[in-house]
Specification:
Layout lengths: L2 E4 L2 E5 L6 E6 L4 E4 L5 H13 L4 E5 L19 E3 L1 H10 L3 H8 L4 H4 L11 E2 L14 E6 L6 E6 L4 E3 L21 H13 L7 E3 L6 E2 H19 L20 H15 L1
Parallel strand pairs: 4-5, 5-6, 6-7, 10-11
Antiparallel strand pairs: 1-2, 2-3, 3-4, 8-9, 9-10, 11-12
Bound molecules: zinc ion.
The site of zinc ion has 6 residues, from loops.
């Protein structure tokens, strides 16, 4: 179900990992950001948009991870954008069908059988440094940084004042660092990204994370601080007091602590 979170901005939460699809209303149709995961949910979203008489006129993927690169033919053939680095990473990692087949091995089978990889990652890279998504609607500013994944982008929807945070600023997921071998300094990349996002925090009243709950104005800075505290604690090997993996956590209790342990271990190995 589509829920309005600000004037002209709607969100649909997916069953998978509490993923959020974002719909921004423009003059002739909508901008669709990270549409969702399960195929039946993408169809339901396409149906909802048809009922609202709102064709998709542009798409955007916040970063080159599979759960943000899916699409459905019912959304039509509008251009799907990403940053230049996002698109280049998709080309590197998913050059052909055999790469897609390998990716399938990483996705849990119960999820894999509910998704369609047909239109995965068909992304048009915007020229490096592009400031705004080219489309006929409210100005949507691209805040690119290198945390979590190469070419990761947060978006500022000017006017309604909404921050689309990609896979950062979640109330349920801890920061997930980009620990690929070609990332020189994943910790500093993440802290720099949080500083960039902090720079736009004063312009927004709503934050929509890639996974988790939509937050109000008070949540924007609180979530930046919480993510920063996590990253610093991991950097400095301090004892962590993070509610997302603590005893009161409400999400991912059976797997998220393991993600945290693996991050700590991989960081230690890199040193
Ligand atoms: Zn994600």
């Amino acid at each position: 179900m589509l829920k309005q979170v600000a004037e002209g901005v709607l969100v649909r939460e997916s069953e998978f990992c509490r993923s959020n699809a974002v719909v921004v209303q423009g003059r002739a149709g909508v901008l669709l950001v990270d549409p969702g995961v399960h195929n039946h949910e993408l169809v339901a979203l396409a149906n909802d948009l048809r009922e609202l008489d709102q064709p998709v006129v542009a798409g955007f993927s916040t970063h080159p991870h599979w759960d943000h690169l899916l699409w459905h033919e019912q959304f039509g053939a509008a251009p799907r954008y990403g940053t230049a680095r996002c698109a280049a990473t998709v080309r590197d990692r998913l050059p052909d069908a055999s790469a897609k087949a390998r990716l399938a091995g990483w996705i849990p089978p119960d999820i894999y059988e509910q998704i369609s990889m047909d239109l995965l990652g068909v992304i048009t890279g915007l020229p490096a440094g592009t400031a705004r998504i080219p489309w006929d609607g409210p100005e949507v500013r691209i805040v690119e940084h290198q945390a979590h994944a190469p070419g990761h982008a947060a978006l500022v929807i000017e006017g309604p004042g909404v921050l689309v945070a990609g896979d950062m600023l979640s109330d349920v997921l801890i920061p997930m660092l980009d620990l690929n071998d070609d990332t020189a300094d994943p910790i500093e990349d993440y802290l720099a990204a949080l500083r960039r996002i902090e720079g736009v925090a004063g312009e927004v009243d709503v934050v929509v994370p890639g996974h988790g709950s939509v937050g109000g104005a008070d949540q924007v800075r609180a979530r930046i601080e919480r993510d920063r505290a996590y990253v610093r604690a991991v950097r400095d090997a301090e004892v962590l007091d993070d509610p997302r993996i603590g005893p009161s956590a409400t999400f991912g209790r059976d797997w998220l602590p393991g993600v945290h342990e693996r991050q700590v271990q991989r960081l230690a190995e890199r040193r």
